[in-house]
Amino acid sequence: MANKRDLKRSINYVCSDLFAEGVANSLYGAKADEDTVEAILTSILKIHSDFISRISHPEPGMKRKVYFAKLVEDFNKNVNEIIDQLNGLN
Fold first, then answer.
1. pLDDT bucket at 74, cuts 50 / 70 / 90
2. Where are the alpha helices (DSSP H) in the chain?
3. Which of the 8 DSSP states describes residue 89?
């Protein structure tokens, strides 16, 4: 397991790249519904804040290694869903 700082850094990088991709897709891609694009960008921001706070405040009573493995798995699942949504805008 990486330390918390590296995990937060990775989440920041991935979320900022997803957000930039969403903005670029809305500006230069096919004309998509503005509400859909706004919902995707909002969900990226919610995912970012949710996972950063989950890193800072782990669940008590749960083994750290198991907790952070589950956190990374959940984050990857959410990122894949956002990527699918961004690909669906084209």
1. very high
2. 4-28, 34-56, 64-88
3. T
